[in-house]
Inverse folding.
């Protein structure tokens, strides 16, 4: 590798930009932009030198590539890196035992065949697509390389290829002790590309309220699980596994599941052996919408529910039905009765479990974790895409770096590291020699700024001829 020589050549270019600023030839904002270009070029040069140097080492050491024989040399590949688009040359090999063909250095660097981006860029793309549209994510990553154009389709494919088998893994160290644990759940209605809606489900666990931020109450140790989950048992198992990984289950004396009374939420409560609590927000919503035509009975029904008096609630609903003037109003009253009576155990639990229960804020969590990306703007999703983004956003909400997670999912291959390390001693020796010559043997470096500038310009001119 000629890494050290090229590094010093690039350093001289960067130094020239710094001196131009000091000499007043450009303003500070322009300097930043020019400096970034130079640093990006330096980054691409280093990446190219590392890959080509490692490729040369593999070619020169047949024992390190057993059964692989050279098929073609100096094949060019362009790939988008975090510094911009980089072009390098590598060797194409044929495996005489298996009959396969491969660019070994591509495999070592995690570069997939025909891929336009390297692994680091893919990780950044998936991370960005978790928060913004696929198209915007592609544009953001291409800022360092304007000539590159990553389509939304390309970004979507990267997101879908990301393995999320262990997305619930969120280790917080030793298992915690908790006497009471709250599980709260709700769903987001996501528009599907083929029409209709899909349910993106969100479940989170918390120990209750922690330290407040001003007047706002804050939940402590929140952990999210999300996805479309057509198989409700799979969701229940993921939630249980999350609880088991975070808490000593034997220490939990009471477990509550709060939600709007949907069958999948009640099923979750049954699976966990928890007490179901009907979310008060949905209780009030049902009463307000169903009895909108008779406001005087809404407060009466609300008092009956808050007093946990089922007979009184039925009596109010009976009066409301008599006052209904249309068939639609009668249907609303009937739905309200079915909802309240069918979930009365979840309402009455607010009384029997009063010392330990807390309010349900699932609507707000759905808004921030799911709706902000999936449904707050007019857009339509495929079910695989909505499921994948839901899981990624839950992962990020759990404090997991999506970028680091994607990088960790790549199968490690130490060939590149081994190949580069082989040449490190000689590069270190070259660095010491060049450093001594530049910093100890150059009188200009001990002179004025003007002499330093002239000297650096002269060296730069010689190095490029």
């Amino acid at each position: 590798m000629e890494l050290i020589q090229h590094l010093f050549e690039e350093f001289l270019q960067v130094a020239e930009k710094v001196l131009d600023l000091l000499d007043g030839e450009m303003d500070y904002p322009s300097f930043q932009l020019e400096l970034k270009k130079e640093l990006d070029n330096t980054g691409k040069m280093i990446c190219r030198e590392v890959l080509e140097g490692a490729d040369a080492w593999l070619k020169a050491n047949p024992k390190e590539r057993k059964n692989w024989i050279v098929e073609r040399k100096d094949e060019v590949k362009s790939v988008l890196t975090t510094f911009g688009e980089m072009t390098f040359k590598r060797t194409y090999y044929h495996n005489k035992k298996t009959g396969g063909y491969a660019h070994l250095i591509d495999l070592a660097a995690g570069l997939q065949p025909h891929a336009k981006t390297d692994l680091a860029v893919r990780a950044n793309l998936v991370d960005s697509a978790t928060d913004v549209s696929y198209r915007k994510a592609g544009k953001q990553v291409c800022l360092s390389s304007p000539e590159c154009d990553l389509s939304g389709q390309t970004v979507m494919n990267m997101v879908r290829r990301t393995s999320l088998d262990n997305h619930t893994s969120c280790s917080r160290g030793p298992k915690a002790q908790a006497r009471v644990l709250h599980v709260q759940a709700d769903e987001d209605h996501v528009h599907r590309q083929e029409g209709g809606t899909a349910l993106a489900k969100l479940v989170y666990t918390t120990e209750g309220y922690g330290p407040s931020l001003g007047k706002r109450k804050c939940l402590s140790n929140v952990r999210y699980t999300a996805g479309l989950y057509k198989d409700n048992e799979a969701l229940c198992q993921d939630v249980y596994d999350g609880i088991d990984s975070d808490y000593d289950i034997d220490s939990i004396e009471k477990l509550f599941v709060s939600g709007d009374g949907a069958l999948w939420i009640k099923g979750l409560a049954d699976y966990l052996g928890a007490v179901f609590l009907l979310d008060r927000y949905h209780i009030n919503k049902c009463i307000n919408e169903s009895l909108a035509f008779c406001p005087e009975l809404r407060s009466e029904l609300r008092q009956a529910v808050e007093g946990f008096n089922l007979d009184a609630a039925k009596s109010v609903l009976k009066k409301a039905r008599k006052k209904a003037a249309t068939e639609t109003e009668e249907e609303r009253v009937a739905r309200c009765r079915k909802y309240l009576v069918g979930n009365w155990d979840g309402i009455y639990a607010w009384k029997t479990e009063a010392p330990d229960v807390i309010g349900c804020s699932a609507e707000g969590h759905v808004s921030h974790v799911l709706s902000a990306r999936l449904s707050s703007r007019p857009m339509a999703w495929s079910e695989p895409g909505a499921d994948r983004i839901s899981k990624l956003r839950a992962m990020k909400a759990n404090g997991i770096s999506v970028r680091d997670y994607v990088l960790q999912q790549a199968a490690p291959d130490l060939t590149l590291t081994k190949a580069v390390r082989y040449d490190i001693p000689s590069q270190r020796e070259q660095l010491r020699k060049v450093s001594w010559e530049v910093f100890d043997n150059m009188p200009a470096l001990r002179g004025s700024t003007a002499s330093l500038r002239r000297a650096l310009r002269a060296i730069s001119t010689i190095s490029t001829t």
Q: What stands out?
A: The CA atoms of residues 47 and 377 lie 40 Å apart. The chain has 19 helices and ten strands.
